[in-house]
Design a protein that fits this description.
Helix content is 28%, strand content 9%. The protein contains six helices and four strands; from the N terminus they run E-E-H-H-E-H-H-H-E-H. The strands form two sheets. The protein has a two-stranded antiparallel sheet. Strand 1 and strand 2 form a beta hairpin. Helix 2 crosses helix 6 and helix 4 packs across helix 5. The relative contact order is 0.19.
Length: 211
Amino acid sequence: MYIANGCMYCHSQQLRSEKFGNWWEDGEMKTGADIKRGWGTRRTVSRDYIYDQPALLGTMRTGPDLAAVGPRYSEEWQHRHTFNPRAVNGWSIMPSFAFLYSRERVVGGPGSRSPRALNLGREWTVDPGYRWRPSDREWRKVAAEQGEALKQRYGIAADLSTDGGRKQLLDYWLTTPEEDFQVVPTGEAEALAAYLVALNKTEVPLPEAKE
């Protein structure tokens, strides 16, 4: 799945020596950017790829290096990030892979949500792959029909007769899960996340990796 979705076109799997890669700190340029950023504990060497067929070294870094991404993020984080990177990093330019997930109706009420469902607010799940916002007309209808109940649920004192009050409630409402729908990973998404959380090429110290 990593290969099929072209991950290696934007991510490398090769941590550079501490002698390479610029790093700015307190106005001073230093080297060793990869290690400094926490991308791994040492540089990668040939032996790190001995069982890789093929070796996914990558050729560019539009995104960060993934040679030792496994310990950095949980499987849940990987799913949220893969589904829509903007859900965790608003500045991300990574494309959404929402097609690897399924938006399904919750059968049996709110307590029947799948344990595999992504922990995301409706702003990300109503329109998978995008950040959804209701139209003014849609939100006014929701606020009129459910506004007081929502205020009590979230414990906020919003004046729904004003634009500011309705926006305050909207900001809370968008971050809550949909009541009737959930987004769950497909087998392909599970496989991709499992691969990413297992990536840790710098876990074993190797003598040839010493600077």
